[in-house]
Design brief:
It is a single chain. The protein is mainly α and about 280 residues long. About 75% of the residues lie in helices and about 0% in strands. It has eleven helices and no strands. The longest helix has about 35 residues. The radius of gyration is 20 Å and the shape is globular.
């Protein structure tokens, strides 16, 4: 693939960034985020610290659990098998970097389409009701979106067996799930970190904590969503809570779609920047 094609796609990504970060949110959205901040700020300081630590631990454990599943090995084998359609010398995840950017984008979009459908189904099940489905909604939603970013990273040749890349997935997840008007600064910092990384790095020696006070709006929004679903479940259509099912499915689908798009753009840019930097 020529530099011209790669540079063109890099320009498209930068144009997407300009458009994406211009959407800082409507007055209503900003008012909602301000209210969320006030709710979180009302908590005692020591409890906020413990809550951040607990959420960090949950994310680390979910990430680790996803890496240990049989499904993870199947995904790796699937990606390698699909990549060999384009190049027969693909042996491991890092070899995927040998593919052209268009081949990688094709593979990534197939993966992301599957993840959006998973989120759609999971949200619909939560909307249907039941204590178990309600309590498991947030952990499952976190797992789906972390899995989405993992799949993107692997598609672009980043090996999830490296602690550095596992930690970087968590960093990307944090950035793309922040309120939109707070993402630009965090996005820029993460780009700088990616630019200074060495592909031979195995261990992560940066800041281990992931979530911030600003990010805590995300679980608070999920609690609000669950409350709305509880109300909508009382509105039955032929004995089925269709309104809550549709609302739950739509919310989880849109969140995963947003996470997938932003993370995909980030990893595309990381891959292209590294590739162009290595060119003579």
């Amino acid at each position: 693939m020529s530099n011209t094609r790669e540079e063109k796609i890099l320009e498209e990504i930068r144009a997407w960034e300009d458009s994406y970060f211009e959407e800082a949110g409507s007055d209503l959205t900003l008012t909602y985020h301000k209210w969320m901040n006030e709710v979180y700020a009302a908590a005692e300081g020591k409890w906020k610290g413990k809550l951040l630590t607990a959420v960090d631990d949950v994310l680390f454990h979910v990430q680790s659990a996803l890496q240990q599943t049989r499904y993870e090995k199947q995904t790796v084998e699937y990606l390698l098998t699909e990549a060999r359609v384009f190049r027969s010398d693909i042996r491991e995840i890092e070899d995927l970097k040998k593919l052209s950017i268009d081949q990688l984008r094709f593979m990534a979009r197939k993966q992301l389409a599957k993840q959006r459908l998973v989120a759609l189904a999971q949200g619909g099940v939560t909307g249907f009701g039941g204590v178990l489905f309600t309590l498991s909604d947030l952990p499952l939603l976190l797992a789906i979106n972390l899995r989405t970013i993992q799949r993107i990273a692997m598609t672009y040749g980043y090996d999830m067996r490296k602690p550095y890349e596992m930690m970087f997935v968590l960093k990307v997840f944090h950035v793309v799930t922040l309120p939109r008007h707070l993402q630009y600064e965090a996005w820029s910092q993460l780009e700088h970190e990616a630019g200074s990384a060495d592909e031979d790095w195995i261990f992560y020696d940066g800041e281990d904590s992931v979530v911030t006070d600003a990010w805590m709006q995300r679980p608070l929004q999920n609690v609000t969503k669950l409350f709305v679903l509880t109300v909508l479940r009382k509105k039955l259509v032929q004995g089925i809570p269709l309104f809550s099912i549709f609302t739950g499915a739509a919310y989880n689908y849109q969140l995963t779609k947003q996470v997938a798009e932003a993370a995909h753009q980030f990893y595309q840019k990381r891959h292209l920047t590294e590739k162009l930097r290595m060119k003579p």
